[in-house]
Write a structure and sequence with these properties.
four-stranded antiparallel β-sheet, pyridoxal phosphate, Aspartate Aminotransferase, domain 1, alpha/beta, Aminotransferase, 15 strands, Aspartate Aminotransferase, domain 2, binds pyridoxal-5'-phosphate, AspAT/PAT-like, pyridoxal phosphate binding, seven-stranded mixed β-sheet
Length: 395
């Protein structure tokens, strides 16, 4: 049957594929330790849940404006002012069904067919597919572990052509946990302004940042870069609200209007009840963030130390998000427990099958010598999972 070539070109999410396999094994009664989670293992705070329950009881259950309620947009503007020193008006804000949806809207708004979007890798699996959905062309700059998984300005300059429409910045990063410093961001901003290219700045892990580092939004340096930047953020990761599906963008008014129009035909407003919950999250007590961050640091430290103490694997210390990229290059070409390791996919498969540990192969992120481990799981799970990895590697 004839189907859409564009839709056919979209790959399934590799992060979800390994998860499906692990779930199937679990349903067969196998005890799997999962390092695949892309979400905090904390519950949504009670005051946020209560705001949603109140919204239902108060009948706040109808359509809202397609790009979100004015009160939530105002709260988002206050957040940008307080956290990022950025001045926006509600007309700059579009609220969507998760930051993922915000990103889809952003690429729809800025890409014409054949426009290039620069994606530094290792990168979150969805960016290239979102660009393709918008008829854009993903262009990759590969960043090595030795470079701290960050691109240099020279690499960026080389990747820019007259077809470049935008660059994606994701700091702190999924999957590497790396953070661009203010100095690095200023240099990227200057280049983007001089070339007139947009910056899609995915700041969803903004609050999960450790070791005294401070998040800086690239949009905050001057009006020129602010005008070219679409800042993407949301409540999923900061407030343990992944299932509620609220994300948002801040951009210039023209782009906000285009995204709002696109969204008005695709999905209409984000869930009205979840918007009330997001309002409570942004305006209510912020302790959950510090509590989560403190717990994540303990787990990260343990995980990094353990990985670096096991023969054949290593990792650098990430400063944000909740992921560690484990280097498996020394294992490639070896046979472990009867399983041939040819790259990150076969390593992930072997580990799942022989050690009952699920993690995400790096291939989907653009690096086949790494696998991603999430530490958004209990310390007990982390200890047991790493014990299993150690035992598997000693075979
Ligand atoms: N951006 C990055 C880098 C992510 O890792 C994720 C979620 O995994 C998202 C955006 C999407 O978040 P949301 O749940 O708000 O759609």
């Amino acid at each position: 049957m004839v189907v859409s070539n564009k839709a056919l070109s979209i790959s399934p999410s590799s992060t979800l594929a390994i998860d499906a396999k692990a779930k199937k094994m679990r349903s067969e009664g196998i005890d799997i330790i999962g390092f695949g989670a892309g979400e905090p293992d904390f519950d949504t705070p009670d005051h946020i849940k209560k705001a949603a329950i109140d919204a239902i009881n108060d009948g706040f259950t109808k359509y809202t404006p397609a790009s979100g309620t004015l009160e939530l947009k105002q709260a988002i503007c206050r957040k940008f002012k307080k956290d990022n020193g950025l001045d926006y008006n509600p007309s700059n804000i579009v609220i969507s069904n998760g930051a993922k949806h915000s990103l889809v809207n952003a690429f729809q708004a800025i890409c014409n067919p054949g426009d290039e979007v620069i994606i530094p890798t290792p990168a979150w699996v969805s960016y290239p597919e979102m660009v393709k959905l918008a008829d854009g062309v993903p262009v990759y700059i590969h960043c090595t572990e030795e470079e701290g998984f960050k691109f240099t300005l020279e690499k960026l300059e080389k990747a820019i052509t007259d077809k470049t429409r935008a660059i994606v910045i994701n700091s702190p990063s999924n999957p590497t946990g790396m953070i661009y410093s203010e100095e690095e961001l200023r240099a990227i901003a200057d280049l983007a302004v001089s070339k007139g290219i947009y910056v899609v700045s995915d700041e969803i892990y903004e609050k999960l940042i450790y070791d005294g580092y401070k998040h800086v939004s690239i949009a905050s340096f001057n009006d020129k870069i602010k005008d070219l930047t679409i800042v993407v953020n949301g409540v999923s990761k900061s407030y343990a609200m992944t299932g509620w599906r609220i994300g948002y963008t801040a951009s210039n008014e023209q782009i906000a209007k285009i995204m709002s129009n696109v969204q008005s035909h695709a999905t209409s407003n984000p869930n009205s009840i979840a918007q009330k919950a997001a309002l409570a999250a942004l305006e209510g007590p912020q302790e959950i963030i510090d509590e989560m961050a403190a717990e994540f640091v303990k787990r990260r430290d343990y995980m990094v130390e353990r990985i670096n103490s096991i023969n054949g694997i290593s990792c650098i210390k990430p400063n944000g998000a909740f992921y560690v990229m484990m280097n498996i290059s020394k294992l490639i070409g070896k046979e472990i427990d009867g399983m041939k390791i040819t790259g990150s996919d076969s390593f992930a498969d072997a580990l799942l099958e022989k050690a009952n540990v699920a993690l995400v192969p790096g291939s989907g992120f653009g690096t086949d010598i790494h696998v991603r481990l999430s530490y958004a799981t209990s310390m007990a799970n982390i200890e047991e999972g790493l014990n299993r990895i150690e035992k598997f590697l000693s075979k």
